[in-house]
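Example record used in the benchmark description.
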Amino acid sequence: MSDKVEFTRGIADIMNRDSRYAYEAYTFVLEALGYTLRKIGQHRHVTGQELCFGIRDLGWERFGYLARTVFNSWGVRATEDFGQIVFNLVDAGLMGKTETDSPDDFKAVYDFREALEESYRVEVPWAKPKAPKPKNP
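Model output (structure tokens):
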């Protein structure tokens, strides 16, 4: 059986036990783990806090200002929800953890409204302030 089929079945089993979160929330968390590892630049353990910031950054890239709305539509309303998703994946054998990892690592990492909406910025090249022209002597 392929890894994708195993993964899909694993998520279906999780959702039968805990229906709070959409399938997409689980796949996004796993994608965000890979994204975070690439951003860190080394293959190592990622803390709950690091993963939360990776999720935020990937959410900005994928969904822009609507990241909070998308996460809410998946049943995710706070960083604690990402912790529940991670530990559901761990319990299903789809993600690993260390002895010291805990759902508490995901508590109040950031406020969704502030981190996903108020801090969001769109950079447009034509809106950057231009350097002043040097004055001729």
